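User: Just a sanity check before I run the rest of the batch. Below are the structure tokens for the first item. I only need the designed sequence back.
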């Protein structure tokens, strides 16, 4: 009798409609959640653990050193140099593609011949992987046969030709230029889409009132694009924090430490110098940097939504 009651209870439990609905939802959520935990959450907390150890990545025993790695970070000149390069990349790598995309979007907004051609050409670099962009610009900047130096010499501007990736004062700006080239097309296409929602009646009214192009841009177009500009600014900020591929492919942080960013410094420390514990501490610093940028992004989105 008791066994029959238990079976009936189980049947009623599985026959419950809400449970069936939840079961369907869980069936979709659990696989994605499991992958997220396995590939993101677990590595993150394991990296925190490694950052508290002294380990070369090969020995079976990891020596626990507490916060020693973080104490060394505070006095690490290479870290501060890499962070300064990240800051430069974040500023220039954010302002430049957004400004170029806005300029080209407004320029082509009212329609010109060959619009599809321009959109395709400007967006084409975005399709390329960052590694491919790095390879292209490494060839472009080649001091002997690179198209940039060849063109300068052909124009009689030999004094401007140089080893772009070998000059510590020029290498970082040259890399940022390559990064902007690879990304501004995305900003352009998104801004072009946003411009379709601008109220043309306001533009026409401003023209009647005698507003010039700069005034129409500042008081009508940019406010109308605030959500779009916030979004693409957030993307470029995050790219500036996490930039790695193009730097590693072209210079590997050289010459010297002239182009090291925190991602390349972390990789170099953990995997080439075999200081896995210290490299993990660097990775945590990069994660904190990303959190700060994300906080700025969220604040901007909330302010833009008011």
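Assistant: Here's the designed sequence for the first item:
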């Amino acid at each position: 009798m008791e066994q029959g009651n238990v079976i009936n209870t189980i049947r009623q439990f599985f026959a419950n409609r809400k449970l069936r609905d939840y079961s369907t939802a869980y069936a979709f959520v659990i696989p994605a959640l499991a992958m997220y935990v396995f590939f993101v959450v677990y590595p993150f907390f394991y990296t925190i653990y490694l950052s508290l150890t002294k380990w070369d990545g090969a020995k079976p025993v990891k020596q626990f050193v507490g916060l020693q790695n973080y104490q060394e970070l505070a006095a690490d000149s290479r870290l501060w140099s890499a962070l300064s390069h990240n800051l430069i990349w974040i500023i220039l790598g954010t302002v430049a593609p957004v400004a170029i995309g806005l300029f080209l979007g407004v320029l082509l907004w009212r329609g010109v011949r060959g619009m599809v051609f321009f959109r395709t050409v400007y967006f084409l670099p975005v399709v390329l992987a960052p590694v491919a962009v790095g390879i292209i610009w490494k060839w472009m900047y080649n001091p002997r046969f690179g198209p940039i130096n060849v063109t300068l010499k052909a124009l009689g501007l030999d004094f401007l030709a140089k080893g772009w990736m070998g000059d510590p004062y020029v290498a970082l700006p040259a890399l940022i230029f390559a990064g902007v080239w690879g990304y501004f097309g995305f900003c352009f296409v998104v801004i072009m889409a946003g411009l379709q929602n601008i109220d043309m009646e306001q533009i026409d009214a401003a023209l009647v009132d005698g507003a010039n192009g700069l005034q129409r841009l500042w008081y009508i177009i940019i406010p109308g694009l605030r959500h779009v500009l916030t979004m693409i600014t957030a993307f470029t900020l995050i790219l500036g924090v996490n930039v790695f591929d193009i730097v590693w492919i072209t210079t590997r942080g050289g010459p010297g430490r002239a182009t090291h960013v925190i991602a390349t410094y972390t990789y170099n420390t953990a995997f080439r110098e075999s200081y896995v514990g210290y490299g993990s501490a660097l990775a945590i610093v990069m994660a904190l940097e990303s959190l700060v940028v994300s906080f700025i992004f969220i604040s901007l989105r909330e302010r833009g939504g008011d």
